[in-house]
Amino acid sequence: xxxxxxxxxxxxxxxxxxxxxSFLGIELALRGVTPFWLVAYxxxxxxxxxxxxxxxxxxxxxxxxDGKRRWPFLVVAALFSSVIPFAxxxxxxxxxxxxxxxxxxxxxxxxxMPMAHFFSVGERMTPRRVxxxxxxxxxxxxxxxxxxxQSSGAALENWGRxxxxxxxxxxxxxSVTTRNCPPIDPIAMGAIxxxxxxxxxxxxxxxxxxxPPLPDLTTLMxxxxxxxxxxxxxxxxxxxVIRSAGSTFMSLTNYQVPFWSMIFxxxxxxxxxxxxxxxxxxxxxxxMGMSQWDAFRNLFRKK
Length: 303
Description:
Keywords: Membrane, Transmembrane, Transmembrane helix. Its main location: membrane. This protein has helices spanning 6-29, 35-56, 64-92, 98-106, 108-119, 127-144, 157-180, 186-209, 217-245, 247-250, 253-269, 277-291, 293-302. The mean pLDDT is 84. The protein starts with 5 loop residues before the first helix and ends with a helix. It has one domain (6-302). Helix content is 78%, strand content 0%. α1 (6-29) runs antiparallel to α9 and α3 (64-92) packs antiparallel against α7 (157-180). It is an all-alpha fold.
């Protein structure tokens, strides 16, 4: 059964902040590297860090007699949490507006909920939870504003939209798979999934974009940050949240990401903030609170 504590709320808030910053990093990195090689570099640095941490902690995976049960979960989690959605977003965002990509990421919560209802223990849909999720999603729609109705004008825009929504479905599949994986050390799970993901991303980048580009120093620093903070560190937090608090709770992160993405864009890129920013934030927070009302109530009862 999911156990939502004050630590769970801190971790999910941290994830929203960290992943919101990743859009700024991706935009900066794309100035010096191609999309699929961005994914490969990012996952490569993430794998390097997580394996180092894992080895320092002994490098144990699971008991030999239990290992075979976990590998299918680990491979699916790796492919659907990193390689496939990263590739879909990198390609899709070339053909759609940023608002379309933002809505797709916010939709993760709506996709996760029915999947968790049927495939995870203790994550049942309730009228309050569904309504809260819809209110939070409405906040994201307000946040993105008029951009929702704008077209990029790209010839492959519809395919780009489908790619972004496909990425959202991948994240949902990965969350439920991670939740249902048999017991395993979170550090080991993070390291294994990052190695599998990097191992799949490099051949994909070679097949689609040829030899790896040599990034300049600034781009390299951004790629290292994307790999080690927004991917390796965030992936570990993500695993801890899902394994303890559940995939539905984890999906609340996706309502926060568009908000933080716009804040970072305004601060570092001079982008204009939407007029309905604080209304949107209010709806997002209200929706999060309503969908997790029982967890809030239990948290304050413990105090």
